[in-house]
Design a protein that fits this description.
The protein has helices at 2-22, 185-219, 224-240, 247-251, 257-282, 288-308, 311-314, 318-341, 345-368, 378-419, 424-429, 458-462, 467-487, 508-531, 566-580, 589-594, 629-637, 639-650, 654-667, 672-681, and strands at 28-31, 36-38, 49-59, 74-78, 92-101, 109-113, 119-124, 127-132, 150-153, 159-168, 181-184, 443-455, 491-495, 499-504, 539-555, 558-564, 585-588, 603-609, 618-623. By secondary structure, it is α+β, with helices and mostly antiparallel strands. Strand 13 and strand 14 (499-504) form a beta hairpin. Helix 1 (2-22) runs antiparallel to helix 10, helix 5 packs parallel to helix 8 and helix 8 (318-341) packs antiparallel against helix 9 (345-368). The protein has 20 helices and 19 strands. Strands 1, 2, 3, 4, 5, 6, 7, 8, 9, 10 and 11 form an 11-stranded mixed β-sheet that branches. Strands 12, 13, 14, 15, 16, 17, 18 and 19 form an 8-stranded mixed β-sheet that branches.
């Protein structure tokens, strides 16, 4: 049912586009008798009259205005190349003559002059009316500019004597291959404007469609058919402005005939192999490469011919390439029919548009060979074909979108589950889009700040709780503390039973602010515990900033993401210092130096302390922003005295250090760290 709907919709597209374009290309025909076009009795109903019929023709003679017309003349039917008459060669020159009678009214009439690669000079009533190129008796190696189709106002007289000097030294068909049109000037101008507008719209549609398909491929690189169809549309969009109304000459007047013809041929030689590749990718057949690759080579040869040879030479090879194109199109039809038999809806819709496009291409081949007298239909045929492909793309996107919605729901649930175990930041810094992309051994190096948090006396607390109470307690604690880490730009690397290891890729200030905020949250949490009759929770936090390696370790069937670095070990030792020296937050000198806003951090140096596993003493600071207000105020007040006592101790001036700490204890007895140092002086520290 859906297939029938799509086919019906595309048929409606084709019908509407045909209606849109049909009124802009046809005009009425007035056949002459003995080179006389009598329009004096004609009623111009809005469509121009084509001056199609018998014209006087003088071969190998360029007759100028005022000259007596020779008695010997030929009659030639226009529009028709003189080379179709076996008496005349392709290259040469001659003069056309006809008389036109206009109605005796006050209307200004105009003449629509079609494009031709033959050079001409047109005289009306003895005056030069229009010209294109240089009319010459012999071939010249110089390149002359050509004129696009034009509409010019005619003299306001009833009788027109038209004399056209024509020379052809370059094209495959000599002479005037299209008939001029005559009508009221406003009618012709309106028609030309409409035709230019249609071609401009077609160019825009083809070009934008090409970019859209190419962009679609760039965003989804598995669908190469989108790439080749996009390139095909882009190439043919430029071909659109190289034929018909020759819009390229409107924007770039003065282009030479050699450039325009070469560009037109090159778009043809590019479009065909690109389209072949599109079909081969979208609807592959086993024999496709035996037809594709030779067509690529032949197309390249023809492109080189158009680039390096003159038009009068490579134009004679065009017929062979047109035959190749027809054979290629038969292969394309075969491929589409085979896939259509397999109930491939995409092939069935494509074949509808391609048949129209193929018919338009055949028309253009016959038209360029001057076998039939129509007009260039490839732009219209391409438009119809693009409509079918656009419909297919819309359908594909709709199907993909529907599937994506279903998958998205499933993936959202799955990803949310995975993110509970694997931090999203872990994927980010390993430059992976999803967890499935992670491989064993993936790693990266970067500078981060590390936080180790530990719950004090957890072992003794857990001995008094049932197993499920332990989990409830830990989850309740982490539920309050962990959001603070994320809010300050960090992420949790792992839970350590009664502790947390968190990483902060950004500024060290973020880690410091997170640690202070966690102490604030702890105060609120303890108030809640106190109201429930539970003992308060105490924590210790260590912060260090340094280079670490983030990556995956394990084996093929079981791996884990982790960080490995001496900085991690040092941070873990820092956390143990907080318990040993009776304060809450310890930061390393590296972290303190990395702070951008040192004024925020209330710190005091606790000296150079030996850490387990470290040969060198480590300079450590106490961060006391999280202390209660009275304690914080006194630590700030006696900071200088405390740091002096610590410095004396580091310098092993034990007596002076003891005196300094005793003096400080009398002034600030609440400082437990001072008492720790007094106890340690009795037994001096060793490295």
């Amino acid at each position: 049912m859906r297939e029938k709907y799509e086919i019906t919709r595309i048929a409606a597209y084709l019908f509407i586009l045909c209606l849109f374009c049909s009124g802009a290309v046809f005009g009425e025909t007035l056949n002459s008798s003995n080179s006389v076009f009598d329009l004096s009795k004609q009623e111009f109903s809005g469509r121009p009259f084509k001056l199609k019929g018998q014209w006087d023709f003088y071969w190998n003679t360029l007759i100028s205005p005022g000259q007596m017309l020779p008695e010997e003349k030929d009659i030639i039917n226009l529009p028709e190349a003189w080379s179709l008459n076996k008496e005349y060669p392709i290259f040469g020159y001659g003069t056309y003559h006809a008389t036109v009678y206009l109605p005796a009214d006050q209307v200004t009439y105009g003449l629509s002059i079609p494009f031709t690669l033959s050079h001409y000079r047109m005289f009306v009533n003895g005056s030069l009316f229009a010209e294109s190129g240089i009319v010459s008796l012999v071939h010249s190696k110089e390149s002359y500019s050509v004129m696009p189709p034009r509409v010019l106002p005619l003299p306001e007289v009833q009788k027109l004597d038209i004399l056209i000097q024509v020379s052809n030294q370059d094209d495959f068909h000599g002479g005037l291959t299209d008939a001029a049109e005559i009508s009221p000037y406003t009618v012709l101008s309106l028609k030309k404007t409409r035709q230019e507008l249609i071609e401009a719209i077609l160019f825009g549609v083809y070009f934008i469609t090409g970019l859209l398909y190419i962009s679609f491929f760039i965003s989804r690189r598995i669908d190469y058919s989108s790439l080749f169809f996009g390139l095909f549309c882009t190439v043919l969009s430029f071909r659109t402005i190289l034929y018909g109304e020759y819009l390229i000459l409107i924007f770039f007047p003065g282009l030479s005939m050699e450039f325009i013809t070469a560009a037109g041929h090159i778009t043809y030689y590019l479009a065909f192999p690109i389209f072949m590749r599109f079909i081969a990718v979208a609807f592959p057949l086993k024999v496709s490469r035996w037809l594709e690759y030779p067509s690529y080579l032949i197309s390249l040869i023809f492109i080189l011919l158009a680039v390096f040879l003159r038009h009068r030479v490579y134009i004679f090879f065009l017929t062979y390439y047109q035959i190749l194109s027809v054979l290629g199109c038969l292969y394309i039809v075969t491929a589409l029919v085979i896939y259509s038999k397999n109930k491939n809806i995409f092939a069935r819709i494509t074949i509808i548009g391609f048949v129209v496009f193929f018919a338009a291409a055949i028309n253009d081949i016959l038209y360029t060979q001057n076998i039939i007298q129509t007009f260039h239909m490839t732009p219209l045929g391409l438009g119809l074909f693009i409509l079918t492909q656009a419909s297919l793309m819309t359908w594909k996107i709709a199907i993909a979108f529907s599937q994506a919605e279903n998958l998205s729901r499933e993936l959202t649930v799955t990803n949310q589950s995975f993110r509970r175990f694997v931090p999203a930041e872990f994927l980010k810094y390993l430059k992976k889009e999803k967890i499935a992309d992670i491989a064993l051994g993936d790693h990266t190096q970067m500078i981060m700040s590390i936080i180790f948090l530990d719950i004090r006396n957890f072992t003794s607390m857990s001995e008094k709780m049932a197993p499920h109470d332990i989990f409830d307690f830990l989850n309740s604690f982490f539920d309050r503390v962990c959001p603070v880490i994320r809010e300050n730009g960090g992420f949790i690397d792992k839970y350590l039973g009664d502790g947390i290891m968190a990483l902060f890729p950004g500024k060290a200030d973020n880690a410091v602010k997170a640690a202070v905020k966690m102490l604030d949250m702890l105060k609120i949490y303890n108030m809640h515990r106190d109201s429930c009759g539970y003992p308060p929770v105490k924590i210790g936090i260590g912060i260090h900033t340094g280079l670490l390696m983030l990556g995956t370790i394990g084996e093929a069937e079981r791996m884990d993401g982790t960080v490995i670095s001496d900085a991690v070990n040092l941070c873990a030792r820092l956390e143990s210092v907080t318990k040993e020296y009776s304060f809450n937050i310890a930061i390393s000198e590296d972290t303190y130096n990395a702070l951008e806003n040192k004024d925020f951090a209330h710190v005091r140096s606790v000296g150079n302390i030996p850490l387990k596993g470290k040969q060198k003493l480590i300079s450590i600071y106490e961060l006391f922003n999280g202390d209660n207000a009275p304690l914080l105020e006194k630590k700030m007040k006696y900071k200088a005295e405390f740091e002096l006592a610590v410095r004396l101790l580091d310098e092993k001036k034990f007596d002076q250090a003891r005196s300094a700490f005793l003096s400080l204890k009398e002034k600030f007895p609440e400082d437990e760290t001072t008492q720790v140092y007094l106890n340690k002086i009795r037994k001096p520290r060793t490295t």
